[in-house]
Amino acid sequence: MQHFKKINTLKPFDWFLITGIVVLNIVYSVLQKEIDFIGSVAAVSGVICVVMVARGNILNYIFGLVNVSLYAYISFKSELYGDAVLNAAYYVPMQFVGWFNWIKKREANDSVTVTSKTMNTSQRIILILFSVAMVAIVGFILDKFEDPQPYKDSATTVLSVIAMYLMVRTYMEQWSLWVVVNIISVIMWIIAFLRGDAHSMLMVIMWIFYLANSLNGWYTWIHLSSKK
User: Fold this and answer.
1) Would 172 disulfide with which of 10, 113, 114, 221, CB 3.0-4.6 Å?
2) What pLDDT, on a 0 to 100 scale, did the predictor assign at position 44?
């Protein structure tokens, strides 16, 4: 059984993001005159998760498990099968992998936060070249299968897989990839909303908050890694 001290590591901006997503979900429910329970839980748990990731808080994986499970279901209903498979087959098991890896990288045996690390210049160049190459290759393959937006789908999938791996390994460079993924995802869900897909507006709101948090996380982890 794990014992943690100082479980709350959140700062004012983090509480702003969490409060904001809750308030916007309430406003959305009032305007729609119905409560989208699944979409709301997915959005709120997702924002809490990424906010905790930005603070290096290991408890993010508890909320992450709830979020990715529901997001897989929502994506499947919206016929975003790539996102559905990515969340169900990759993100769900990676919540457990991430938990056990972060346990080993905590600042102390009873700490709830991890230490971050950063790549050197050569590693960053390799990361960029590898990411671009994989997006191009997967996009080319998706195009052959007549995906209507092959390179957009490729970018969100490939970069998310790489970013999640870097997150589990506590690399600061994960955030640059999350920023790109979040921008593309906001656009993707806006398109889904214009199509009239269920839960889509709440997903737009969620990804906008993800984007704000990824910028904050990038800034925070730069300072975390510089403290070593």
Assistant:
1) 221
2) 93
